[in-house]
Amino acid sequence: MAARHSALASLVLLACRQNGQSALHPGGPAAERIADLWWIMLVVASVVFLLVFVVLVRAFTHKGFRAAPRTASDDRTPTMWVLAGGVALPAVVLTPLFVFSLSTFAGLTPRDDTGALDLVVIGKQWWWDVQYHGEKPQDRLRTANEIRIPVGRPIRIQLRSPDVIHSFWVPGLQGKVDLVPGKVNTIWIQADSVGIYRGECAEYCGLQHARMQFRVIAQRPEEFARWVEENRRPAATVSDSAAMAGQAVFLSSGCAFCHTVRGTPARGVVGPDLTHLASRQTLAAGTLPNTRGHLAGWVGNPQAIKPGNKMPRIPLRPEELHALLAYLGTLR
Ligand code: CUA
Fold first, then answer.
1. What does the mean pLDDT of the chain come to?
2. Tens of pLDDT, residues 241-272
């Protein structure tokens, strides 16, 4: 029984560490500064809380609390308490915290942006369009809900929104920055160790706000370069019969109006670019793991899984759905 409990506890701990969505487990320089500020504020606030508590207890237990005759010094005491506790103490406590906060904010942007990687992330109801803008048009690549970055390199992300206000928040790497329609905001992130950092939309943006998640996957630079190389390529030509039938379903059933698969006539831009869908870890902005079964459920009835999202339910015969899944599985 004890063994089972400790196994469960270590599983829970492992899950906590793996989800990588805590501002108190910083994975980069900006998040470290924010975590430092948080700990200092916690310590200072705890000391102030204890102080107030002690004074409160003393006030209730002091004999003056029970109706004792007033003296001249009793009249001076309240003024002294107001000045000391209401003016001097806040000034002494809040001024250094204010200065420290300002220096923390200033440190959230790197001083030196040489070698920075530029990305554009567009928040949409309710998913993240991720674009890598290379020097040449053929260097560009587009993915969704997953941001691959090389470790140790500053990443400058332009944040945009075409619909409502969203907020980009990867607690393990940086604070929040809003995506505001008609405006371009910038956020810097940097991961110092390889890992997956979970992010969330942090501004209520409609029915499926809670299912607007993403992942920042920090890789070694050579692995990242390989990923970029593979993901710049158009989709591989399909050769087996099931996948070919699935591609025909994809191109004729309406999927292609909303989704792009580079290298095919599918050029829609309403939904995520699916050119390398099968290489992604999740579906529907972190709602489901990317497995064939979940993909079948999602394509079969996206409105049952994420009500209100823009993907309609397209009636497909079972054999069409199977063929479509075979095709989507080839988009590695
Ligand atoms: Cu987007 Cu909340």
1. 90
2. 999 999 999 999 999 999 999 999 999 999 99
Residue 144 is encoded by which pair of tokens? Answer: 């969704």
Atom of ligand 1 nearest to the CA of 204: 2
CA of 286 to the centre of ligand 1 (A): 13
Does residue 185 contact residue 119 with C-beta atoms inside 8 Å? no
Amino acid type, 242: A
> What residue owns the CA closest to ligand 1's atom 1?
166
Query: Does the pLDDT value for residue 150 go beyond 60?
Result: yes
Give pLDDT tens digits for 76-102.
778 888 898 889 999 999 999 999 999
Predicted structure pTM score: 0.87
Sign of CA dihedral 228, 233, 237, 243: positive
- Of 269, 298, 293, 268, which Cα lies nearest the Cα of 283? 298
Q: Which residues contact 196 (CB under 8 A, 6 or more apart)?
A: 18, 20, 215, 216, 217, 218
| Structure letter (DSSP) for residue 220 | -
How far from 295 is each of 9, 115, 200, 299, CA to CA, in Å? 31, 38, 22, 6
